[in-house]
Amino acid sequence: MLDIRGLSKRFGYGKGEVTALHEVSFSIAEGEFFTLLGPSGCGKTTLLRLIAGFTGPSGGSLVLDGKDIAAMPPNQRPVNTVFQSYALFPHMTVGQNVAFALEAQGRPRSEIDPAVDKMLTLVQLLHLKNRKSSELSGGQQQRVALARALVAKPRILLLDEPLSALDMKLRKDMQIELKRLQRETGLTFIFVTHDQEEALTMSDRIAVMSGGHVQQIATPRELYDRPANRFVAGFIGESNFLSAKASAGVVEVGEGRVALADAPDGPVTLMIRPEHVVLSANAPDALELQATVAQLVFFGTDTHVHLVLADGTRLVARVQNALHGGQSLNEGERITISLPAKALRVVRDEEVAA
Amino acid sequence: MTGADTLRRWALALPAVVVITLFSILPLGVVLVYSFLTPGDFGNVKWIFSTDGWFSVLFERNIFDDTIAISDANIGILVRSIVLSLITTLITVIFGLPTAWFIATRPVAQRNFWMFLITIPFWTNLLVRTIAVQEMIRSDGVFNRILLGLGIIHEPIQMMFSNFAVLLGMTYVFLPLMVLPVYAAIEKFDFRLAEASYDLYASRLFTLRRVILPLIRPGVIAGSILVFVPSLGAYVTPRIMGGGKSMMLGNLIDLQFGQGRNWPLGAALSITLTVLVLLALIWYTRLTSGRKERNHG
Ligand SMILES: Nc1ncnc2c1ncn2[C@@H]1O[C@H](COP(=O)(O)OP(=O)(O)OP(=O)(O)O)[C@@H](O)[C@H]1O
Ligand SMILES: [Mg+2]
What we know:
Chain A is an alpha+beta fold.
C-alpha cells in the first residue's frame, strides 16, 4: 500500500552536507504494524517526516495506493502523526483537540461531535473531554494525541517515539493499549523507536536502520534468529561473535570444527545468542571448544556465564537457574562448551553503507 | 512570614512608592484640583471653584445669547484622537505581525540583527523622525517629486496636514512598539504546533486563525496597548503632521495651557485622557486575566 522507492534526504550543502537517508526502499502492507528501529541519529524521524510531508525528499519516490505523494503537502496526505512531544494545542480542551482535524476538513458539527465522543471512548478519556489539554498527565496527553491523529481515519498513522516520555510502568501499559488500538482499527502503523524490546514485542515487521541505511527488514522472530549482519545482530538482543575459517561447508574455530552448509569459503564471523551456548561437551552436531569461566553473574531467573576461549575471545552464556542448582560452576574453572550448529549464524561483518 | 521580612519587603518597595507618589499621584491631584478652578486672566488659575472647565470639555456657551450647545470642535478632536489611535493600532498590527513573524523565523544568529534594525529609529529624536516623514510627503517632498518626475501626476498631491499624514507619522513612530512584544510571543510559539495543525488537514489560514493567533494573542494585546496609549496622547506627531487641521487631544490640551489660557479646561481634558487610557488598561487586564481563568476552568 505504501511503496518507498530509493528515498533519500540530504540536509545542508557544500561542506556542511549531511545525508540523513541513503536511498531507502521498502513496502508496507495494509494493516501492518511496521517499526523503524535504530540508534539515535540514524534517520528515523527524517524518514517519518518525509512520509508525513513536512520535508521533501532529495530523491526517490513515495507511492501511496498507487499515487506518488512526494510532492503533496501534509494537509492533503491521508497520513497523520503522533508527535514525540505530543504537540497538543494548549489553548484547547481535550475535545477541541480531537475535533481539530474534522473541523479543518470542514465536516459538519453533526458528524464531528459523535466522532469525537467515539474516539475519546476508544482511548478511555471521555470523562476528560472538557479538560484543558495542558492539564493532563503524560499518559493522558499521549492518549489525546492518539485520538486526535486517529479521528479523521488516516490511511497510515505515524508514531515518532510516542512512548519515550513515559515512565516504565505506563510505557508497558501503553504498548499493550497501542497494539489493541491498532488491532481494533485495523490501521497501518509506522512506529519509531530506539528500544529493541518495544520493537520486538509490538511489531509485525521491523526495519533496522543505522547511519541512514536500512540494514534489514524482517519479522521480529526472523530478525532475532537470522540477523543479516553484525550490526543487526549486535543491536537486536545480545550476541556472541567468533572469528572462523570456512572451507567446503565446514567452519573451524581453534580446535573445534562443525559442518555449516551456508558458510562461504574464507574467513567468516559466526554469531550465537547467549541462551544457545551449551556448557557441556555432549551436544550433538556442535562446535566444541575449551573455555575458562571468567565470571558468573546472577540475574534471578538466569545466570550469565562469562567465558574466555583459548585465543582470548570472550563469550557469554545464559543458563536458567534450576531449582536444585544443577551442575554448579566455579569461576576460573576450565570447561568444554558446545555451540550447536543450528544456533550458529554466519553474519556479514560489514553493514549496509555507502 | 516574620515581621522583619515584611519590613524588608516594604523597604524594598519604598523608593518606587516615593517616586510614584511624588511624580505621578501628586501631579495628578494638582491637575484634578485645577480642573475645578476658574481660569486666570493671563493663564494660570483663580482659586474660585467652578465646573466650567469640565463643562467645556463637551459643551460650549454662546457668548451672545448664553445658549448651550455641544462643542463640535472638542468632540471632533476627542473622536478623532480615539479613531486615529485605533486605526494606528490596527495598522501596526497588520504591518507588525508579519514583520515580527519574519524576524522570529530567521535563524537565531540573524534575529538580533533584524531586531537591531527595528530599534534603530528609537535612537533618533522623535521630532527628527517625524520631520523625516514630513520630508517624504510634503508638496515638494520626495514622493511628489518622484511622481512628478515620472509624469504620473502633474500637480503635487497634498498629503500634509491631514488625518492621513497623522496616521502615517504615528504608524511609523509606533510600529516598533508593536513588533517587539509580538516578536517575543512568536519566538515563544512552538512551531511543532503549526506542523501538527498542518498535518491534521488544516490549511495555512486555518492554522493561523485557530492555532497561531490564539497563542500569540497576549503579545498582540500587549503591543496594542503599547501603541494605543501613547497614540491617544500623541503630541509631537499630530502637531507636525496634522498642524491645526488635524489636531489630537494632546494638541488641544497644549492649546488650553498656551494660547487658550484656559487651564481648568486643559486640566479637565488631561483627566479625560487619563481616564481613557485607564479604560484601555482595564480592558487589557480583563482580556488577559480572563484568559488565565479559562485556562484553569
Ligand atoms: N533539519 C536538519 N538539518 C540538518 N541535519 C539534520 C536535520 N534533521 C536531521 N538532521 C540530521 O539527520 C540525521 C538523522 O536525524 P533524525 O532526526 O532523523 O534521527 P533519529 O533517528 O530520529 O534520531 P533520534 O532517535 O535521536 O530521534 C542526524 O544526523 C541529524 O543530525
Ligand atoms: Mg527522532
